[in-house]
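Priority: medium. Attachment 1 of 2:
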């Protein structure tokens, strides 16, 4: 049965602490999908701040969960239209993470 945790209205920083506890309980070889970041955009973070927070999330997750991690791109929301450049720049930076980390994919 698939495991699924949803944390609406959370930022990358808050999710780092919440997800690690969940992932330590998983022992099977599965793929973890991380789809997060829109709230960081809405809060005014820069693409580099989002990249740093995602890096920290992945590092923390990988300590507890050594399996494959798939990072989903940040999907632009209509309410963040004025920050679409930030979303595009953050996605460009995030797409480079797989070349820097083992078992990390970008979608």
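Attachment 2 of 2:
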């Amino acid at each position: 049965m698939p495991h699924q945790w949803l944390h609406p209205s959370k930022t990358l920083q808050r999710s780092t602490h919440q997800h690690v506890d969940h992932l330590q309980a998983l022992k099977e070889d599965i793929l973890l999908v991380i789809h997060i970041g829109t709230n960081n955009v809405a809060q005014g973070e820069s693409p580099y701040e989002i990249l740093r927070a995602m890096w920290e999330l992945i590092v923390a997750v990988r300590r507890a969960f050594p399996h494959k991690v798939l990072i989903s791109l940040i999907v632009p929301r209509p309410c963040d239209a004025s920050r679409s450049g930030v979303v595009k720049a953050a996605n460009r930076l995030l797409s480079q993470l797989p070349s820097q980390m083992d078992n990390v994919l970008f979608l």
